[in-house]
Each structure stands twice: as C-alpha cells, then as structure tokens.
C-alpha cells in the first residue's frame, strides 16, 4: 500500500506531539493502519522557530490553505485553533477538494460542525475530530461508535481540566479562586487569558460536539453557560460537609418526549458518583442509555501526548479507509436550539452571606415560603465577626422558582452581595 501522506498545519503543542508520536510508533501504526502514515508538508507562522523536532525534507507552506491544496497530500490535519480565519479556511479547502480532515479544534467543530460535515458529505469525504473533546479520552468514538446502538438520554461530564484543577486545589487547600487561578497560570495549567476555560466556553464547545453526535447538531448560542468564578472556598467546605463535590459539568439530556436540555455550570454532585472522584486536570465523559446503562470514562483531557494520541487514532482510521458518518449515510440534520431551562426541576444549593443576628433566618425562610421553595437542609458558618455564610439545600423546584426566590433573598437588608446558586446534579450514576 502507498503511504498515507499528511499535510499538517499548526506546529504548536499538539502538532509537535503528532510528529513525535508518528515517528515513535511508526512500525505499530503501519501495522494497524495497513500502510505507513507520513507527514510530508507542514504550515505554521514562524518558519525559523526551533520546535524540538526535525522538519527536514518536509514541504513548507506559510499559508495553510495552500497546504490543503497540495496535490501530494491525502489528508489535511488542522492543529491551528480558532473557529474562524486560517483554521476554518483550511478545513473548508481540504473538504471541498474531497480529502479527509483531522482536527482537534473544538471551537471550529462546535460552531461549524454541521456545515463542515455537510460539506464533507457533499464531497464524499469525512471530518474527524476525536481530539476536540476531552483530549486523550476516546469520547467521540464512545458515543459515535461504541454506543451507536443505544438512544442516549444524557451525555456530558467534566470537560475542562483547568476548572477541575482549580476546584480540586480550592477544596484541598481552602484557598480562593483568584489565588489558585494565579498559581495555575504560573504553572502553565491555565492560560494568561483564562476566560475561555474558567467562564465555561471551552467546556461548552466540547458539550456542543457531544450533544451533536448523541442527539443532533445544536445552535451553540442556545447553550446555557456559566463558569466557576463565583465559587468560593466556603462553598467547597459546605459541599464536603453536605456530602457533595463541586464540579464544572457540561451535560446534554433528552428524555422521551421532552426537548433537548443542555448546559455548562458548576454543580454539586454526590460524592458517591464516578465523576465526583475525577480530580485535578483529569476529564470525564459520562453517558446514560436505556440499553447500555450508566458509563463513565476518565483520563487526560489535554496536553501534548494525550491530544496527539487522539489525533493519530483518527489518522489510523483514515489509513484504514473508515468514513464514519454520524447521523446517517448522507444527510446532516438541521441545527436545533436547546430548550430554555426555566421549567427544568432540580434541587439547588443556595449560599448567602448574611448579617448574623436574630430575625435573619426568619426573613430568609419567609421569602422562600412566598416563592413556594421548600428547604431540605440548612447549614451555617461564621464568615467574619457579625456575618455568617448560610447554605440552603432545597427540595426539587423549577429553575424559575429558585431564581425568583434568590432575587427576593438578594433584596433583603440582611443579605450581603449576590447569593450563589448551584444545581444539585444527582441524576448521574
Ligand atoms: N493544547 C492542548 O492540550 C489541546 C489543544 N487542542 C486544540 O488543538 C489545537 C492546537 O492547539 P495547540 O497545539 O495547543 O496550539 P498552539 O498555540 O500551541 O499552536 C498553534 C500552532 O498554529 C500555528 N498557527 C497559528 N496561526 C497560523 C496561521 N495563520 N497559519 C499557519 N499556522 C498558524 C502556530 O504557528 P507558530 O508556532 O509559528 O506560532 C502554532 O504552531 C487547537 O484547536 C486547540 O483547541 C485540543 C485539545 C487539547
Ligand atoms: N483548556 C482545556 C484543554 C484543551 O481542551 C482544558 O483546560 O481542559
């Protein structure tokens, strides 16, 4: 068999990892793919940067679109990043000429996956993106192939390692968000501009991709997205006391006859469920289907090695000649909106900073009574002289009811600052 010739755009963390892995495991990959897999052409911004791997003998392109049009490549690998610009133009150029594309670009697939898949289908080729969700964890293969027989009711999990690391450190050390974020930035676990991670957008990209495979493509803007900036060390202490862990979860759920619900938000999860014990930079993907039951896989969601492993696994599929349509042989369904969450019922955790004097609790409970929000548990700790943190766990209520009650609580003169509301996600197994 002729070698599978790769045009590789992006020679950063993942791109260099792919070159190293292809060289380190060349013999096994040839055996598994049935042909050798060789990088023949590359593109990046700087031609002179030392990347720690030899680029001798590889054709160089300043323009990734020109790389995608190189007649001597069989597959284009896009490891540039970003939902627009060069990355998108390169992927479109490769698919339009009918060659497969492998990408790790979650922003691109989350925002344009439906259109790119349709383009691939039109030109009788395939877009592969295993590395775009949870790095080294085979999340896409799990949902698209291993669970292809089931009609999943939920899919999601811990989809951002930076947030999981920060929450894990906050719990272990009692330090606050800003302090742990600064340390994570110094260690290189968090970006200098952390918003994509800590405000939930990276997890939302991954969730949109998973939901698209498990259910059907969703309009990214219809996702409800909240990050972890408002979670304090006091919340992590309350969680431990009440038998929970706080995790940034991204979850999509569609039960029989109900609309698709999908969100990213910090949640309280019971300590007994598998995702509760996934700590540090690790990610976890959890599914539930009526036939397959509950399933959770965890591992490294980022980094040179794990992400390169997922990219190269896609290249082995290409070498084997796999085409892997997601929704059917040809037609890509239209994008749908996720349902509003107002009527979704759950138990909630509400944490307030209050004046620690008589009558405060009576004021809180009268507001909850007026909004028909029933309390399941209450806990209180001194926050500062004359001030207390109060944690309430509600019985199941709608999102609308709890948000309206919390607006009423915020207006009380005894309540300082904004209360924090966390969903108690007790449906995972
Ligand atoms: N890092 C990780 O752990 C993970 C990354 N991903 C995804 O993988 C992709 C790559 O990430 P990562 O390797 O970390 O990114 P890096 O920032 O490390 O590397 C990006 C590369 O793209 C090149 N590049 C940027 N703009 C252009 C352009 N216009 N034309 C040609 N090349 C360009 C850069 O060139 P130069 O080096 O010359 O500046 C660089 O080599 C992203 O989509 C990311 O979301 C997914 C999972 C995990
Ligand atoms: N920034 C991501 C890794 C890339 O997907 C994370 O923290 O998980």
From TrEMBL:
Pathway: Amino-acid biosynthesis; L-threonine biosynthesis; L-threonine from L-aspartate: step 3/5; Amino-acid biosynthesis; L-methionine biosynthesis via de novo pathway; L-homoserine from L-aspartate: step 3/3. Pfam families: ACT, Homoserine_dh, NAD_binding_3. It is an enzyme of class 1 (oxidoreductase). CDD domains: ACT_HSDH-Hom. Keywords: Amino-acid biosynthesis, Methionine biosynthesis, Oxidoreductase, Threonine biosynthesis. SUPFAM superfamilies: ACT-like, Glyceraldehyde-3-phosphate dehydrogenase-like, C-terminal domain, NAD(P)-binding Rossmann-fold domains. The keyword Amino-acid biosynthesis applies. InterPro entries: ACT-like_dom_sf (IPR045865), ACT_dom (IPR002912), Asp/hSer_DH_NAD-bd (IPR005106), HDH (IPR016204), HDH_cat (IPR001342), NAD(P)-bd_dom_sf (IPR036291). Its EC number is 1.1.1.3. The keyword Amino-acid biosynthesis applies. Residues 349-429 form the ACT domain. PROSITE patterns: ACT. PANTHER family: HOMOSERINE DEHYDROGENASE (PTHR43331:SF1). Belongs to the homoserine dehydrogenase family. This is Homoserine dehydrogenase. It comes from Neokomagataea anthophila.
